[in-house]
Amino acid sequence: MTLLPFDDRDGWLWLDGSLVPWRDAKLHVLSHGLHYASAVFEGERAYAGNIFRLRDHTQRLINSGRIMNFDIPWTADEIDAACNAVLKANNLTDGYVRPIAWRGSEQLAVSATGTSIHLAIGAWPWPSYFGTNRMQGIRMGEAKWRRPPPETAPVHAKASGLYMIGSLSKLKAEQEGYADAMMLDWRGLVAETTSANIFFVIDGDLHTPVPDCFLDGITRRSVIALAKRNQMKVIERQINPTELSRTTEVFLAGTAAEVTAVREIGPHQFTPNRITETLMKDFDHLVLQSPQEVARAVA
Ligand code: PMP
Q1: Second label for 69, Cα 20 to 30 Å away, from 32, 63, 119, 165?
Q2: Mean pLDDT (whole number) for 273-288
Q3: pLDDT band for position 2 (cuts 50, 70, 90)
Q4: Statement: residue 29 has pLDDT above 70
């Protein structure tokens, strides 16, 4: 895997309607999106040539834009086609796809009136986020920063501004030797991690927090569907961090993380076991199905 910086690679990106050479895909430093985080994005994964649940990601991108009070000037069909075109142009069948929409340079003040909306899409090889043995279990710390209440931020948009909290928390966790951090919400309840949703096995059942102030991930929803197909009991509820002491298994679900076991959160230890393994295997199988089969499986 190449470790070159992202601005020093070759290939193709899609920018405002056409494929452009990777090195030429630039924006001006005086862009509203950069200064005021008026940007929304997606993180998608392609497996064997198919972007997993592409239309759901595209819909969320469009919806995130609407929550941020802008319309992306491309239809869902056009965005889907552009994502596929970027993969193809870079000779990728497996990898990560990153669409991002942002407000342009027409003005640089808090007011965003009159700014044009841009869309860029990149794709690159990206093996497993937490290493290849996802059953081994990662070690996580506990973040100091909390997910804000829905009245204070557009918490259901995949909006760049919200990643300030996640990025600070991930950086701190890594400085402390952890792979990631569990984040609480404004009430002190368990929310998610810096870039994935979280599941717990308690008394043999699957429990996961209600996504009322953070992203209801596409992987999360896929895992819930798979669990139900396996006759597992899935309980979406408010989860107190004190419950970690009676939790037996923990795993993460997200596009980057896929399904990844967790073996430690702060002072708590867990042993990845049958439920994590079943859902990980089922998810790994699901992502290789055709888009039609995926749609049927998660319906
Ligand atoms: N929460 C956050 C903060 C994320 O960044 C992500 C990744 N998009 C998720 C949850 C999981 O969402 P998804 O499964 O749709 O990738």
Answers
A1: 165
A2: 97
A3: low
A4: yes
Q: Is 147 exposed, middle or buried (0-12, 13-18, 19+ CB in 10 A)?
A: buried
Which residue has tokens 């869902």?
76
The residue to which tokens 């990898």 are assigned: 95
Of 126, 156, 158, the residue with max ligand 1 atoms within 8 A of its CB, to mutate for a pocket test, comes to: 158
Residue 293 confidence class, pLDDT cut points 50, 70, 90: very high
Q: Whose CA is nearest to atom 12 of ligand 1?
A: 217
pTM: 0.97
Token digits of residue 274:
């049958």
Domains and CATH numbers, the chain: 12-124 (3.30.470.10), 138-298 (3.20.10.10)
The CA–CA distances, whole Å, from 102 to 27, 129, 142, 201 equal 10, 26, 31, 39
How high is the mean pLDDT of the chain? 96
